[in-house]
Amino acid sequence: MSDQINPLLTEQLDALLYEETNLVANLANASALLKQTLTDINWAGFYLYQPASDDLILGPFQGNVACVHIENGHGVCGTALATQDTQLVPDVHAFAGHIACDSASNSEIVVPLTLADGTKLGVLDIDSPIKGRFTTDDQAVLEEFARVLLKHIDKV
């Protein structure tokens, strides 16, 4: 099993985004920080919620090419959006309705991103080629990472 995600990651993100509130810039730097820092991952990035079509569209990311549209409630990302609960999936092949954007991915964690006023922004998605890569401790760190990220984003 891989090393757990370092809790200092959130402090790195906070410093990286200091006095910057641009959505695209902050999501791009956050995904780069995740890809550069985390071990045994093959994709780190964001899907942004589109209220008009009630789906997610690909946002800034680091990794292989990815699915562009994901329906609300479909796959791991759509499930996280619909339930507003983090999805910690040790084996994506056992997840009913999993969308295989990259056949190399075997585990996944998806954290919903919601602004303070309740507006759904989208999801943070991280994939790994290793089954069971993410732990509940990693989940806690990534949920805090999401909270830090959101405080640096203006309302969209």
What can you see in these coordinates?
The chain is an alpha+beta fold and 156 residues long. Helix content is 31%, strand content 26%. It is built from four helices and six strands. The chain has helices at residues 9-16, 23-37, 75-83, 136-151; strands spanning 43-50, 55-63, 69-71, 87-89, 107-114, 120-128. Strands 3-2-1-6-5-4 form a six-stranded antiparallel beta sheet, sandwiched between helices. The protein is globular and about 40 Å long. It starts with 8 loop residues before the first helix and ends in a 5-residue tail after the last helix.
- Kindly report the spatial arrangement of strands forming the biggest sheet: 3-2-1-6-5-4
Structural class by SSE content: alpha+beta
Mean pLDDT: 92
Helix residue percentage:
25-40%
Principal-axes geometry comes out as: globular
Task: Based on the model shown, name its key terms.
31% helix, 6-stranded antiparallel sheet, 156 residues, 6 strands, alpha+beta
Short account of what is shown:
The chain has helices at 9-16, 23-37, 75-83, 136-151; strands at residues 43-50, 55-63, 69-71, 87-89, 107-114, 120-128. With 156 residues, it is α+β, with helices and mostly antiparallel strands. A hairpin with a 4-residue loop joins strand 1 (43-50) and strand 2.
Task: Detail the topology: elements first, then pairings.
Blueprint: H1 9-16, H2 23-37, E1 43-50, E2 55-63, E3 69-71, H3 75-83, E4 87-89, E5 107-114, E6 120-128, H4 136-151
Antiparallel strand pairs: 1-2, 1-6, 2-3, 4-5, 5-6
Helix pairs in contact: 1-2, 1-4
